[in-house]
Amino acid sequence: MKLLLVEDDKAMQTTLQRTLGRRMIDVRVCGDGAQALEQWRALQPDVVALDLSLPNLDGLQVLSQARAAGLTTPVLLLTARGTVGDRIVGLNAGADDYLPKPFDLDELEARIRALRRRHQKSDAEAAPIGLPEVGGLRADPASGAIYHRGDVLDLTPRESALLKALMAKPGHAVTKERLFELVFPGESDVQYEAVEVVVYRLRKKLAGTGAALMTLRGLGYLLREEEQDKES
Prior knowledge:
Elements: E1 2-6, H1 10-21, E2 26-30, H2 33-43, E3 47-51, H3 59-68, E4 75-79, H4 84-92, E5 97-100, H5 105-126, E6 137-139, E7 146-148, E8 151-152, H6 157-167, H7 176-183, H8 194-206, E9 211-216, E10 220-225, H9 226-231
Parallel strand pairs: 1-2, 1-3, 3-4, 4-5
Antiparallel strand pairs: 6-7, 7-8, 9-10
Helix pairs in contact: 2-3, 5-6, 6-8
């Protein structure tokens, strides 16, 4: 597997390249935030390990720009900032996991591999080739990005996973339990109500697109074209 390590500490770059390389992980490094996005696109890594404190462009800016550009690669934040507030900010910006420094190398490897497994499972189950267009929304199976009439929607990985699951069955309800499995795979410490938060944020982003995200009490959620609502 390929890992893009965005970290400006030379000693850590060398250590992780050597240690993870022995464990069959191909580590490519980038020490500058301003260059990270270009290398991200070129390498197409399986996972990105991203430090928050970077020269020229900090990790949160890199992450926000990557998600806005439709890059859905799972991201593990590495940072010496250990407060809950920093963790929440990072996760809300689109990170998938968080590991404070200093960290154990075995735990780092385990988290990287877990992120890759979750991403592969989500892609296989929630983003099959040939997802139907709904209300001007189109999923690109190659990049994983979702477009609205040619423009990339600015979605977090969880919002993207939920939307793809609904696009796979337009006009049909998908249960909250099923969406939870796809949006929060393997995260036993997350409550089912977290799906409602993702739905709320996604519904706001879909406003005016021509696609309506509806709640069916007792059944789940469905996606359909807004024109259907107007005609009924």
